[in-house]
Amino acid sequence: MTAGADMKQLLGDIIGERFSERFRRIVEEARENGDRLPFAKITSDLKTYYGVEVSPQHLSRFMLGQSSNPTFALVASLADYFSVPVDYFTTEDEGKIAQAHARSQKATHQRVMEQAAEARREMTDALLALDDEAFASVRQFIEAWQQVARRR
For residue 136, what are the domain limits? Predict the structure, then answer.
């Protein structure tokens, strides 16, 4: 190997280690309904919203440091998905990392709020589609549930 190739390999190893560490950190902190985001959801969203295909197993290998050669498309889509700058995955600047985590948590909260709003809209639409008898049954169920909840 030449000195240039050695330097390129060393730089790739450093960036790969940093990417794995930062990817692991952001995945462990990203939550959906209190649980860590499953890799299957992340990969599905990456394909749907960014056109980037990666397997859950490959993401797991990145997280464990067993793979260290992410494509720029993958890094860029993960950065956007978690609402952090691309250099979050490679920088040594802890201040930038802290800011990125704060943005990521805010984005996760926003995503949860949007999902809750969508669920409310869907529930409202479903209730409006019920006939009078079915609506009365739903109302009785809700009232009974509220009474049980008040007793607790």
Answer: 3-151
Helix (H, G, I), strand (E, B) or coil at 32: strand
> What is the identity of the amino acid at 10?
L
Q: Does the pTM exceed 0.85?
A: no
pLDDT averaged over consecutive 10-residue blocks of the chain (152 residues)? Answer: 46 59 83 77 90 92 82 88 82 66 68 76 83 85 82 72
Q: What CATH number corresponds to the domain at position 135? A: 1.10.260.40
What does the pLDDT read at residue 123? 82
- Asked whether 75 and 17 are in contact (CB, 8 A), the reply is no
User: Letter for the amino acid at 151?
Assistant: R
pLDDT of residue 132: 86
Residue 45: CB atoms within 10 Å: 14
Cα–Cα dist 52/64, whole Å: 20
Question: Rounded to a whole number, what is the distance in angstroms from the first to the last CA of the chain?
Answer: 72
The Cα 93–Cα 115 span in angstroms is 33
Number of domains in the chain: 1
- CA 90, CA 113: separation in Å to the nearest integer? 30
